[in-house]
Fold:
Amino acid sequence: MRKKWIENIKFIALILLLLSTFGDVCPKKTQVVDDEYPSWDTDGDNISNAVETNSANSYLGLDPNTPNANPSIAHGYPCQSQGGGYIEKAFNLPNQGTGYYHYNPDKGEPLIDTDDWGVLALINMIEGAGRLWVWNEYSPPRIGVGDLSKGDQYTQQFGGYFPPHSCHQNGLEVDIRYVRNDDLDSALNIAWYPEYFDEFATEILIRYLIRNAHIELIYVDTLHSSLNHIGYSFILHLSGHSDHFHVRIIDPDGTTN
Amino acid sequence: MKRLYLYLASLSLVLTVLIVLVSSAKMVSYVYFGGPDYFWRISKEILDKKRLHRLDVNTNEKKLIYETKEDLLIDISVAPTDTLIALLVKKEGVTPPDTFDYIVLPKNSLVFISPDGNEIGRLDEDVRKFSWSPDGQKIAYITGTYYEGGVGFKTTGVGIFDLKDRSKKQIKKDFPHRTIEGFKGGGYEIKWAKHDNNIYIRDFDYLDGIYRYNTKTGKSEKVDCNGIDFSPDGKYYIGDGTLYLTSTNENIMSLLRQKFGQQWTQFSLEWVFDKGHCLHFIAQKPIQKADGKWDYEGQYNVIYDVEKDEILKEVTLPISWWKGSPNKLVFEKDGKIIVETYEDLFKK
Structure:
């Protein structure tokens, strides 16, 4: 009798195991899985799974298995001199992802998820460039991503005045480290230590960023690099850009709001 | 009588000591002998950026005149009078062995040397930006803490250093700063203007304001303009890479666009010489390719008189790393330097 019970339990466990495995392979009817969608965005909503499952973005109620609309809107302008701006429903960049890592320049107050918020197009540019970076075997080093816009998931206040930046206000801008030639995921000031500068790889990185977004401008240091020779008139010199270059994308929802 | 001699002798001794003391107190400890024939350069060798060399253009003699014991020489600025040199020196921060990310942030010092390399003073206050007074006797400066990104530092103060008596004056307290979310604002660009001898500071505040510090009255006021880099005669100024007319704040970059074409690009807009309104910039000429797209050919230097709307000179030679006072623009060809001055240009 006991043996029979044990046999029954074994059988039920086997069935359950099979069902659970089957469940994983075959999604429920409500799940959207399409082979046409890439592995990093399985519901094909143009918001990556990494962003959708990033805990800092939980306030947006995103589901990696269901297509979500893009709620982020850049209001106003990137710079203080233009009148400033802010972000409505900002996205937080995962602290690391394929081909990139986020560094916090504020060594005194290294608070997580306070300086890496942007509109979806900006996040997608970084993630897209990171994937190309890995696929084309430029990593290591990974892309060093610094400040985007500031934000707080709990108060849901995003963007605004962000010293010591004169811009970075409405989620359209990001600082990125120049690429090192020693494979380290570290800072590099090309004016101080040009011997560690991989200018060719940095040019490739800029091209990957351009491929993944509509760029308004990129500020680089042309006193210590020739990055303005890439052939894009929006790549400009600005002093103070020897330890990072600054990328601004075109406001995806227009500048009138 | 003997007593009188003794008295006179001791009196003269006391007087001599007093004269020596007074004269040494008044004596300026650096010598003016820079002249127009010297230029200075931080060592070009990548791994040897601790050294400063001097070039005598008459003899073409290059001489090592200064070497820092700190980490790096990161900037050089020669006083308008050619008599002093300010060197921004980086003191090494601390990085762990496997990374170059600072755990202790690097700091800067501003070191003043004479034209022959003698150190005559220093500011150990983490100086980030500085600007010479037109008479070359004082320096206005911004101090701040290193920050990787943004403008590169978080401002901690604004001051004036007088090289004659080595006195320092903090002028930040005179500014209508506000505490904004724990950040005490502060300047991030500073220029000592020649036309009115006042100090202009671009400041972080809610309006990204520009302030003028009156060096006579010690008062500051907010001014309505878009930049702080004025031409020597004050008629024009540069702000965010754009050219403005001071009297109306009108953006007159279109002048340059009309002259060089819409596709033309320029870099490093700066005033040259100590008079007038001569711009120097590096330009790139556009060429239209067969597919209709635009590309850019090599860079060249332009010296341009804004008021006359006239190109004074176009030079394809590279700008020299040798630095002199702002009165001269220096190009390099086959190891020799070619100096352009205001007087020379207008003589032609």
